[in-house]
Specification:
Elements: H1 2-34, E1 42-53, E2 56-69, E3 76-79, E4 83-88, E5 94-99, E6 101-105, E7 110-121, E8 126-135, E9 140-151, E10 154-164, E11 170-172, E12 175-179
Antiparallel strand pairs: 1-2, 2-3, 2-4, 3-6, 4-5, 5-7, 6-7, 7-8, 8-9, 9-10, 10-11, 10-12
Length: 184
């Protein structure tokens, strides 16, 4: 009489184990359904984009790689192999921007430039830093990182700076260096 109970216990155990492993397999499939892959909507090599405003070129963007993530809830464009940008003001004076990596956030209009960022104006002003943000709407650059600013008045180093795209307005914090002053 004990023998049938053992068999029924073994049968129930085998059934429970089979059911457990069967549910595990289905659970992983359900997890895959809810997983959305983080893949770009488009992947472009060697791009050269010209931006215009009222028939005039306002900017030129060149990059060896562009990944467009416009398919996400918070869309952005990534430039993993660097970026070269030329901005034009209304008088067609140019500002040159270079960085090893960049991300442009579509909803905010902010561009995050990272890695050996260098901005040069036609007037000869040069700013170098490791990370710099550009607010496209207000045409304003800013960083809290260390920077080096070179212009006709001298060289200054500091940490934290914000300035207009034409370098006409510059606000810097914690600076050191030799700069000529117009004040007497």
């Amino acid at each position: 009489m004990n023998l049938p109970k053992r068999y029924s216990l073994i049968v129930v155990t085998v059934f429970a184990v089979t059911l457990f492993f069967g549910c595990e397999s289905n659970f992983k499939d359900v997890q895959k359904i809810n997983f959305s892959e983080f893949v770009p909507a488009s992947d472009n090599d060697t791009i050269n984009i010209k931006y215009t405003d009222s028939g005039r070129i306002s900017g030129i963007l060149i990059s060896r790689k562009m990944l467009d993530y416009s398919n996400l809830d918070f869309p952005f464009t990534e430039f993993p192999k660097g970026i070269d940008v030329t901005l034009y003001d209304k008088k067609q004076k140019r500002t040159f921007i270079r960085g090893n990596y960049a991300v442009s956030y579509k909803n905010t209009g902010i561009i995050d430039l990272i890695g050996k960022v260098k901005i040069t104006s036609e007037a000869g002003q040069v700013l170098e830093t490791e990370q710099l943000y550009f607010d496209q709407k207000n045409e304003w650059f800013y960083t809290e990182r260390k920077f080096k600013l070179t212009d006709a008045k001298g060289v200054s180093n500091g940490q934290g700076i914000d300035f207009s795209k034409d370098f006409k307005v510059i606000n810097s914090q914690r600076i050191s260096g030799e700069i000529e002053s117009d004040e007497e």
